[in-house]
Design a protein that fits this description.
Blueprint lengths: L41 H12 L3 H14 L6 H14 L3 H12 L7 H14 L11 H21 L10 H25 L3 H14 L4 H13 L5 H13 L5 H16 L6 H15 L12 H10 L2 H10 L1 H11 L3 E14 L3 E7 L4 H6 L5 E6 L12 E12 L5 E9 L28
Parallel strand pairs: 3-5
Antiparallel strand pairs: 1-2, 1-4, 2-3, 4-5
Helix pairs in contact: 1-2, 2-3, 3-4, 3-5, 4-5, 5-6, 6-7, 7-8, 7-9, 8-9, 9-10, 10-11, 10-12, 11-12, 13-15, 14-15
């Protein structure tokens, strides 16, 4: 599972930076005009400011610990917690940092919405680096992460514009969108780990409706679609393709993953055909956000139906038709083995390790007898005696479909073929006279 990259330096301070709201207590002396409303003492305020001014994270934590021990019920505790988690993050003690984001969020209405939002945002960015699926409380930790992210969405959507803000209502709403998208993505990450793939898909779609260029959310949306029961294959591979188009980190490995998904779903006759499908998918993803309604990839069941109903004559007819029909049929029949195909020898080319036969097959014996140009190129392996076949001979062979040419003249190419020994003439000098094998009245090359 791809992780989010942690960078506290790059965290969006949702309300502090974007909305311009204060994130620290007012000076105690500013409140001395009405001491009845002063929520903390000068000693508390000074101790807090000393910790706030300290730049070394380990020294800052010691000062904060001292503050908590002296003033455990201070109204400044939300600001104290807000200093703890960045300090622990600087020390790369992410578990401890996460603990203090939760302490701040747990203050509920005792903390400002801004402070809780910032703590939740830090939490969702820290969580992938703390979460361990092997721990006994892994499930509970995921539920807690999902619930925190959903709370972040609610708090941010409910956040009111300050009265002194110069932003319009529309501008204020627009400024909140990146934070909402972040929280949706975090909830989706937790849902994905919880195997609640349907919920994960919904949250990632919500995130992408706000931030459609988020490669990681596209990738995770793809995972959710591919893992949900039953899988939504086309939506899944499209989402993964969009992630690759957006240059997601590790795109080479993800591209290989996407190819394997196509192969597993489709099970084409030749694995190499998946490469062309993958390239087509990636090209489409660069030009559209939504998957074109006409774009599809056949399932293994679709291809098996073609295999079970095909014979050599339908193969030739369908491939000659060209277009989507030929493409679909070739996906099913490339690499297929046919037990007995009938044809007439047009030309024989003996080689070092194989004998190449150029044959013609058709619907009727009359059509075969009248033919002068081949439509089958057959490589006979390990059967050198096949070189004794002569032009005009009728022959039966089994083999594997390798490729085909549609232009300039239609030709089916076969590999690993074996000729029916009864159809091979006796060696020169051997008793008996060569009697060319006659083409049977029906072409049995059906399966």
């Amino acid at each position: 599972m791809m992780r989010q990259r942690l960078t506290m330096k790059g965290i969006l301070l949702i309300a502090l930076v974007v909305l311009g709201l204060p994130a620290r207590p007012a000076a105690a002396q500013d409140q001395q005009q009405d001491s009845s409303k002063q929520p903390y003492t000068m000693a508390e305020y000074n101790a807090f400011q000393t910790a706030n001014a300290e730049t070394k994270p380990d020294a800052k934590i010691k000062l904060l610990d001292d503050f908590v021990s002296k003033f455990p019920n201070s109204s400044l505790m939300q600001y104290v917690y807000a200093l703890y988690y960045p300090a622990y993050t600087q020390l790369k003690n992410y578990a401890k940092a996460l603990e203090y984001t939760d302490k701040l969020v747990a203050l509920g209405d005792k903390a400002e919405p801004l402070s809780r939002l910032q703590a939740i945002q830090a939490r969702v960015q820290l969580f992938p680096f703390v979460y361990d699926p092997k721990k006994p409380d892994a499930h509970d930790q995921l539920v807690k992460e999902r619930d925190a992210a959903l709370l972040g969405i609610k708090l941010l959507q409910d956040l009111k514009k300050p009265k002194d803000s110069t932003l319009t209502d529309a501008q204020f709403a627009e400024q909140k969108k990146p934070g909402v998208a972040l929280f949706y993505s975090a909830a989706g990450f937790a849902d994905l780990q919880l195997k609640d793939d349907a919920a994960a898909a919904d949250t990632f779609k919500a995130a992408l409706s706000i931030k459609p260029d988020d490669a990681v959310s596209w990738y995770r949306l793809g995972l959710a679609y591919l893992e949900v029961k039953p899988p939504q294959f086309m939506d899944g591979i499209w989402a993964v393709a969009k992630a690759i188009d957006l240059k997601i980190p590790g795109d080479v490995q993800i591209k290989d993953y996407l190819r394997r998904q196509i192969l597993a779903y489709e099970q084409p006759g030749c694995d190499s055909l998946a490469d062309a499908q993958l390239n087509e998918l990636l090209q489409l993803a660069t030009s559209a956000t939504d998957r074109p309604a006409t774009y599809t990839i056949p399932s293994a069941d679709d291809l098996n139906k073609i295999r079970s109903s095909s014979n050599i004559l339908t193969v030739i007819s369908d491939l000659k038709a060209g277009g989507d029909k030929a493409k679909l049929n070739w996906l099913a029949l490339c690499g297929a083995e046919f037990p007995e195909v009938v044809g007439k020898v047009i030309e024989v080319k003996p080689g070092a390790d194989f004998v190449e036969l150029f044959l013609f097959t058709g619907a009727t014996p009359e059509e075969i007898e009248a033919a002068t140009t081949p439509n089958l190129d057959v490589k006979v392996m390990g059967q050198s005696e096949a070189s004794r076949l002569q032009k005009g001979d009728g022959v039966r062979f089994s083999g594997t479909l390798l490729s085909y040419d549609s232009e300039p003249a239609f030709m089916l190419h076969w590999d690993k073929a074996k000729v029916n020994p009864e159809d091979i003439p006796a060696e020169k000098g051997a008793p008996g006279k060569h009697t060319p094998h006659k083409v049977p009245p029906k072409n049995p090359g059906g399966n």
